[in-house]
Write a structure and sequence with these properties.
71% of the residues lie in helices and 1% in strands. Helix 9 crosses helix 10 and helix 10 runs antiparallel to helix 18. It has a two-stranded antiparallel ribbon with strand order 1-2. With 484 residues, it is mainly alpha-helical.
Length: 484
Amino acid sequence: MEEIIGVLNGIVWSNALIALCLGTGLYFSIRTRFLQVRHIREMFRLLFDGKSSESGVSSFQALAMSLAGRVGTGNIAGVATAIAFGGPGAMFWMWMVAFLGASTAFVEATLAQIYKEKHLGQFRGGPAFYIERGLGVKWFGILFAIVSVISAGLLLPGVQANSVADGLNNAFQMDTKVSGLIVAAIFGAIVFGGVKRIAKFTEFVVPIMAIGYILIVLVIIAIDYDQLPGVVSLVFRSAFNMEAGFGAVFGLAIQWGVKRGIYSNEAGQGTAPHIAAAANVSHPTKQGLVQSFSVYIDTLLVCSATGFMLLITGKYNVQNPGFGTDGGAEFLYHGAQNVSVGPGFTQSAMDSVFPGFGSYFVAIALFFFAFTTILAYYYIAETNISYLTRNLSSPIYNHILKVVMMVVIMYGSINQAKLAWDIGDLGVGLMAWFNIIAILLLQKPALLALKDYERQKKEGKDPVFDPEDIGVKNAHIWNTINKK
């Protein structure tokens, strides 16, 4: 199985996908006149703009749910893996993916809002919906939905569960079977309560876990603040092949930085649009800007916090024992030589500053980070099942999904870490390929919506969306949303 997954990953995660992700982000940044910079103040304002309703969640709840998907094991174990295999320069490429990806996140989230539907009383949307309604290619939408159900429901949850089990085992010596059963049981208790319970849980947990984690890491960075300028310099030098110790892995820095960047912030991956569509807003651009901002929170704040902590403390291993020992980089590689790739790196780094506390804190943080991400994956899979079965009124398929994901969680907990990550990468890559192609073909409605939003703002209005005013077709739900 490892060989098969490895071959498939080699095809999916070729240089073509890396170039496509970066190129798409740059293209949309230019087309939107770098909205990720121009509209930062508006992004802040819109965080608390929309209100929840019987059909949809508030803007903040949608943000929390999307951050639940974005802020996960990739922010702790994923960053450590990227630096271990790609060197410190991988951090720069994660930043680049986030900056450019913010515009991609805007486009896909705005499209999800434009072409959302109502199914069983709830707003539903995502790539499958806008592929069918916007592009008019139903078979492509069905194909994406099937891939999404397989990826979000079967492939990706195992990565999160595996990191939770690994972190709890490192800190508390908890058997992976036990931790798997605990995570699966709590997951079942929440998802059987419906989408509203997921939204309320993530709205409460996500801000606390993200702020708490960042504060602890900032304390660690502050203790060794004198090393920070050197670490920042090293990140940039190794990112552009200017550091002797990292010349051999220049290409790996880009590859691992982009791969883990996409896995972490999900820009262009096609997962976040499902959640963006659930928001109850008066204009699609509003949630598009909110989702764009969530990419910054994930990578520029949480991922950077982990990366700087690892580099300043120097507590992470590398794939090649001789890697990084040349030039002036040897101070970064000592200790933690027997720690497996993943959360153990981060736990070792925090333990070096807070002995006896660091491993426990990271294990608990990782539990909440990964668990909320699994909830987001469930919502994504459920949304695509709703798309595939929207002519049916029976919820039996959703109940089957819940049970299957509980089994996947338990299996992922006892699985080998490398295989779990490889399977997760395959799922991310497949969704990214389909979604990026779709949004490149269907960019016009999102760009028209942005222009319409900016026009109404200049006129002093609270923008309200009417698709007919800008020539957007098949956005039927908006005929009832803003005309009640």
